[in-house]
Amino acid sequence: MPDLPVLGMIATPIVLAAITTEWWAVRRGHVAGSYCVKDAATSLTMGLGNIILNSTLAFLSLGGLALAASVRPFALDLGIMSALLGFLVHDFLYYWKHRAGHRMRWFWAEHVTHHSSERYNLTTALRQPWTGPLTGLVFTGVPMVLMGFPIAVVLGASAVHLAYQLWIHTEAIGKLPAPVEAVFVTPSHHRVHHATNPQYLDANFGGTLILWDRLFGTFVPEDAEEATHFGLVKPLTSYNPVIVAYHGFGGLFADFWRDGLKPHRWAMRAFNPPGWSPDGHHQRSDELKADWLARQADEAETDAYEEQSSPNVMRIAAE
Known about the structure:
By secondary structure, this protein is an all-alpha fold. The protein has helices at 7-27, 37-56, 58-71, 80-103, 105-115, 134-146, 151-167, 178-183, 187-194, 211-216, 241-259, 263-271, 285-318. The chain folds into 2 domains: 7-216, no CATH class; 285-319.
């Protein structure tokens, strides 16, 4: 989910009403889901802090877009076609920004904030970083302006994306009709993205359209028979908003300190996936998935052996 812009303040009453309704429905047992007062309060605080920080630094966001507009070679006209094309381009760029946020530890140090909750409800959508608005613009807004898109199209595409992201953070909605699941990011797809189950790690990066994941091989469907676990592989046990906001960078810089004055190793840590280790004993999502697949293969082999042996045991017993 992108950083909450100033427009988030306008939608605040609607968002709070949706959260209240979901919380009530979960408490009454009408829908699936889970709420914890401390966890929800932390997420709401993270959302409020994100809005305040981004609002305060909005001049940097708009300044960056204006600077890009001043050097672009051409400009597209503002209209329906440029708006639709801008939506697609924004969603495509967001996919790669989001994927980088999981596959490079420097970017993960910021994005880990959003994944730190072990609950999955509408408040989770508000658990956003406190690092300012520039990261998103580097990967989405500025490139779009340089491509010729009007700033209004960039802001409009970002607003649509932002509004869309809220409703997919819920367990209250199951799988939707197949045509919807095939094209759009749904709660089912995004639950997979937030899960810590090994087979679900680093999957379903799309913001609005799931097409990019299907196209680039990062799509994983939700298994209805698999219990989904949310949060981080190494759980964060704090509800302190400051710790939630900056523990990713704290851990990274702590590793830099232990490395000593070795900038080349710092670079390796920063731009390799989370879990990379200089000694080669990695705990990246790749290794976690491989271990899970190996266990699955061993269990399947054991089941097959037991199934094959059962008739022989029964025959011997009968004799």
